[in-house]
Amino acid sequence: MIIFLFLSVVWVIVGSSIYLWFIAMLFSMVSGKFLYSGEAKYTPRFIFQITTKECLETVKRGVDSIISSCDRVGFTNYEIWVVTENPCPPAFTDSRVRVMAVPGEFVCSARYKARNLEFAKRRRIAEGYQGWIYFMDEENWISEQTIRAITNFAERGNARLASGPLLFGNGGSRFVWLGDSLRTSQGRLCHLGHACGWWPLYGENLLMHSEVEKVIGWEFNGLTEDIIFTAHAGQKGYRTGWHGGGLHSTSPTSLADFIRQRRRWFRGMLQFVFDKNVKVKYRALELYLLLCGLLGILFFAGTAAGLLYHLTTSAVLWYYLFPALLALSAAYFIGCGGNLKDKLTAVSLCWVFVGLEGVAAWQSLLNPPHGFDIVKKT
Questions:
Q1: Secondary structure of 144-210 in HEC code, one letter for each residue
Q2: Which residues fall within 8 angstroms of residue 191, CB to CB, at 6 or more apart?
Q3: What pLDDT digit, counting tens, does each position of 73-118 carry?
């Protein structure tokens, strides 16, 4: 009886998240605003910021995508900042690109990536910048659709912070790329959350006005500075929005990096849950998402046990668990950016991927990272 009650709690927590995603998927389909398809605006002022630790060669791809996409759309009111800890970063010949190496003597309370973000923020304040900032990581690149979406939101959007969907190309490890299908589908849940007024924003594909950055700053010590930032923004009365611009990215190059990446995220979520400087209502959401990661393995183990012990007549299985499994399969099918064969492969492996996510979540508790793990991408 105790085991059944425990599994019931697991099924409710994890299963409800899957059902919530299904509702979000329907919302994105009905609203038709998941991917923006309108025209660009030309008056907003922009800084495209690529934040990197070592300023790898992949940064050039991102810079080139910004310049070429803006040229094709006809948007000219921008500059590009490459912010790095590398003391010898590569040079760019285009005058619109500014490379900023964060000096070792720069002192602030922020750590890891947040330290670079804080350095760039202070530079903008010193220069009196007033406009919009679009944040990317070193492995990201954009398209014309991204430019049209973010410039339109800057002029007509309903918030000072906004996000959009991540689109994964088949780079790095193919197996890991299939596993990242869920991240694209999770964007639909973010879409619904932003429509309700607030949802955590992530550090890539992040659009914000400089006034928000000036008020909040980046002086946080956690591994998930982006989630902490948007929680503090929510506490200051800022709502979040959905700009609908797709940001292209690649998956980690190995399964080990896939686990390390998730372990860092889950550890950052755990740090956030115990951050007393954040209101409980924001921490509660991350606690729920963290529990989904921790209990995902048990959700599927409990479902498999139910089948093994011939509980197929159980109303719980027929009316709750099986539809939840179908919804999760749909998440991988829709999120996978490949052909039909790729989509079916992602669906067939979804149990494996949920198990790996769970392994990473438990490692964040039992074998936490000692710093900000750098994950290799192509």
A1: HHHHHHHHHHHHHCCCCEEECCEEEECCCCHHHHHHCHHHHHHHHHHHHHHHCCCCCCCCCCEEEEH
A2: 24, 27, 28, 31, 33, 34, 165, 242
A3: 999 999 999 999 887 777 788 999 999 999 989 999 888 899 999 9
Q: How many CB atoms lie within 10 A of CB 27?
A: 17
Cα 146 to the chain's mean position, in Å?
Answer: 16
Q: What is the pLDDT of residue 71?
A: 97
pLDDT tens per residue across span 293-334? 888 777 777 666 666 665 555 665 666 667 777 888 888 999
Beta bridge partners of 46: 78, 132
* Structural domains of the chain sorted by starting position, each given as residue range(s) with its CATH number in brackets: 2-29+261-366 (no CATH), 38-252 (3.90.550.10)
pLDDT number for residue 292: 84
Average pLDDT, integer, range 190-195? 94
Exposed e or buried b for every residue in 235-257, given b needs 16+ CB within 10 A? eeebbbbbbbbbbbbbbbbeeeb
Tokens in use for 333?
Answer: 């099918």
CB 21, CB 188: distance < 8 Å:
yes
Q: Give start and end residues of each alpha helix (H) in the chain.
A: 2-31, 58-73, 113-126, 144-156, 174-179, 181-195, 210-216, 225-235, 255-273, 280-308, 315-316, 322-335, 340-348, 350-366
- Tokens coding 123: 């530079």
